[in-house]
Amino acid sequence: MSTAPANIAILQNHSLTMLVQRELERMVLAGELVAGEKLNELALAERLGVSRGPVREALRALAETGLVRIEKNRGVFVREISVTEADEIYELRATLDQMAGRKLAQAIVPEQLAELQAVVKRMQDAAIRDDREGYHLANLRFHDALVEFAGNAKLTQMYRRLVNELSLFRRHTLAEPLRLRKSTLEHQKILALIAAGDTEGAGARLHEHAMASRARMHTFAATGTAPVEERRASNE
User: Fold this and answer.
1) Residue 213: which residues within 8 A CB-CB, separation 6 or more?
2) Are strands 68-71 and 75-78 parallel, antiparallel or unpaired?
3) Which of 17, 53, 142, 184 is the most buried (most CB within 10 A)?
4) pTM of the shown model
């Protein structure tokens, strides 16, 4: 008896699970599923027009990426990130950013540099339009590409989990203001150091960049407002 139909069914289910996972991830990061919310498999399946199986598998995958937590006998919840945990994540992310910057400055190729330059251009255009969502997406791609191009799969996997966790905190809890123009200049300087092969400079600038975000997070958490220089920059 041929196993082809069974194999096709497995592939179809796997593909559907991936689609469901991506949509649930989008919903969490967009705030449609909020931090702390309990997720109901049946309700999500009905909302997405699928059976409960792909939803269950997708939620397990999202737990691995740090976006949801599974509690035995209680269910699945969108993760909540505290200021203390965000502080620890920023500290670790700064170290990974530094490592990626140093590695990439040693080995970047023209195609990678061109892609990063194009992303920075998107950031610049978004800043001019005051398009915060567009800027946020381009900023995520810039840092993700830096880590991806560094060529360490474990580094990339760990980094992406940390970014997911920070996205829960930054977008849904604090909604951190973006200093669009100043931030674009910072990314241009980072890219220039990488392009010049300055391993120490690139690593140090990326570490400083992440730690500055950590400091802004603490200011916003304490006062509910961005630092004075950022509010000024946003009005320039």
Assistant:
1) 90, 176
2) antiparallel
3) 184
4) 0.76
Q: Is 70 helix (H, G, I), strand (E, B) or coil?
A: strand
Q: What is the mean pLDDT of residues 158-168?
A: 88
Select from 3.10.120.10, 3.40.190.10, 3.90.1150.10, 1.20.120.530 the CATH code of 83-234: 1.20.120.530
Backbone angles phi, psi at 68, to 5 degrees: -130, 165
CA distance readout (Å), 198 to 50, 115, 173, 228: 50, 19, 36, 32
Q: For the residues of 151-219, what is the DSSP string, one character each?
A: T-HHHHHHHHHHHHHHHHHIIIII-PPP-HHHHHHHHHHHHHHHHTT-HHHHHHHHHHHHHHHHHHHHH
- Give the pLDDT of residue 21: 93
Domain boundaries, the chain: 4-78, 83-234
- CA–CA separation, 153 vs 138, rounded Å? 22
| 119 or 234: which leads in pLDDT | 119
